[in-house]
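Bit of a strange request maybe. I'm writing a small parser for structure token strings and I need a real example to test against, not something I typed by hand. Could someone generate the tokens for this chain?
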Amino acid sequence: MATAQISLPLPVLPEGWSAHNDFKAIGTLTTPNQRNLEPVGPHFLAHARRKRHKRTFSEDERIQAQENVKKVEDEEADDISEPEDPLMLGRDAKDWKGQDHYAVLGLSKHRYRATDSQIKRAHRKKVLRHHPDKRAATGSSEDDSFFKCIQKAFEVLTDPVKRRQFDSVDENANVDPPSKKAASKSASAFYKLWGPVFESEARFSKKQPVPKLGNDKSSKEEVEEFYNFWFAFESWRSFEYQDEDVPDDNENRDQKRHVERKNNNARKKRKTEDTARLRQLVDDCLAGDERIKKFKKEARAGKDKKRLDREAEEKRVAEEAKKAKEEKEKLLKEKEEAEKAEKAEGKKAKEAAKNAAKKNKRVLKGSVKDVNYLLPEGQEASAKRIDEVLGDVEAVMANIDNEELAVLAGKLTGLKLVEDVDAVWNEEAKRLVGEGKLMTEEMKILGS
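Reply from user aminoacidic:
Good idea to test on real output. This should exercise your parser:
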């Protein structure tokens, strides 16, 4: 490779420059080394390619663009690749509402199931193939009508609202219902042919997920759920994609309102027709569904059995009711007798308890009387003393129940000494005071 030498003079120093007088070296240059430099990078490779193939800049760029397109097409020859219809390539871009946007982008087999990623990849692939600049570079026709169709399809399918409007009227995504003869060939044929029909219609449902048609093993509840769902089907289809264009000018307002009313009426009509179509479709499927026939046959077969079972059940219930009534009357009589006996026993027990309480009270009063009202032997008890002691005894007896009364009488029975009787009474009085049943000031002699 030839080398070129260029001599450049050093710049002239300005007047009055005197830095050389005050210059102080703070380091030295290292010894120079000779090195070989290798040219690299995309620009050098492009230069080398042009030199090797003797191309101009424009020729090299055109050939590289063609190779890139081919490379992209080879890389994306996947699920979004399909042959192009020559009639579609000659479409007029002005009739964009009549075009199949999915077919334009090569997504015919995906349609409403196509993802945003697939739409973007398909658009990129179509643009690389049909861009006017690329076609001009290859010497093809410069007509860009189909390229405009591509751009319009991409605009519609990447806008959620516009895409939903187009999907609402995309008849190419529908699956035609099978004929009665084809569906009745076998049980498997019925489900195989009708299943895709309802899967296609399910895309219009407001409620998701949509019940499946199932198979001959489906239960009665599952089959009823399927048909109940479709008989009450709620569709989001609006048909506004097929509206007549409304004039944008403000001068002709009457014409604008007329077109809007016309579009609304047309939507309602299409909605009614679609509802009737779907209802007929469900009726046809129901009429040929062997599961419904099987369920009806089972219901008829079980009808007599249910009647006999019902009659037997009614007889059994009547006998059990009669037996239960007799048993109830018997139990009621036994209960009345038991209550009567219990009442008598209760009365006896109550009388016995009453008598025992009277006896125990006499024991309590007699216990203080026998020990001279808690006075030492030989000392005569005054009337006041007797009233005070008996008053304390009455206060104690008023605050204890019959069981405690019996316990206290048991403790006092057999005691003859004043100290023992006094100790028992004091203990009982203190207990009652401690439990809050008796106040200390209420007692005169006991507990003091």
